[in-house]
Amino acid sequence: MSIFAFQNIKGAVIALTALTAAAACTMQTDTPAPPSQRPATEKPLAQLTAPAPTGGSAYYKNYYAKIQHSLLVHDQLRRDGGGPDTPYTAEMLARNFERIAFNSEYSTIGNRRVSEERAVKLTRWTKPVRYALNFGEAVPEEDRAKDQQTFSKYVSRLARHTRHPISASQSGANFNVFILTEDERRNFGAQLQSFVPGISLSDQREITGLRRDTQCVVLAVDRDDDNRIERAIAVIRAELPDRMRTACLHEEMAQGLGLPNDSPVARPSIFNDSDEFGLLTSHDELLLQMLYDRRLRPGMSADEARLTINKIAAELVDGTV
Q1: Residue 208: CB partners within 8 Å, gap ≥ 6?
Q2: In Å, how far are 15, 122, 247, 285, 297 from 130, measured between CA atoms?
Q3: What pTM does this model have?
């Protein structure tokens, strides 16, 4: 059994590399410059880098509210899906797909998962995906209503662009998304085994003991080691403010379909740790369409798939066959 962990590690790290507003540009290039970094002398969020007190939801709500404010001030968490300032070619789309679908952000050394990129084979769902959105008892009803509305629309969007059987169902779900408060998540270990049978203690601890700079996490299970995902679980902090929580929903639900990596040159994309975009973009819709194209098969290596990837990308971007 393989368990793929896709974490979104953001927060203070992102605050120190916040981008400036991107300039509009109509020139297409194979190597677009990544969002520029704020000068090292700027430290508007220095107060957030101090060790976290042993507080609960109130502390984290305040902490992430400051993070979101900084992101929005620097034109991050964009919701436009990309525009004239973020052009991409078929060659760029193919390159980004290969980097994101055929590499993982994490490697396993012994019982530890470390942040180290490694090549992987194409992995995706072959059975229908049934998403369920679950809330901890302490999550306010107002937040639940907004999250449920976002979730329902997004499930339909993922189904439309993958052309794979994807639906929302509280009964018999195989992709469970949990929005939990700090205390609820820390006490979630015993329940994890029922949602991910066979989950290791280290994976349980990774979820229950999320670091402050980790906003959300998704685990995807390939029980037979055949690159076919059978089950997934995503956990999102309930303390996140609206824009950050929606960004986590978008990225984790999409990553858990089989896009395990991020790329600093993928743009416009949520699969980029810059946090420039907070919602699935037009570029990302094409990545999902490519991932579930029947000409690609689970278990293919990047070398085996490259010619097909280039062909699909050309069809999607240039309309060529």
Answers
A1: 185, 186, 187, 188, 189, 192
A2: 35, 21, 20, 19, 21
A3: 0.82
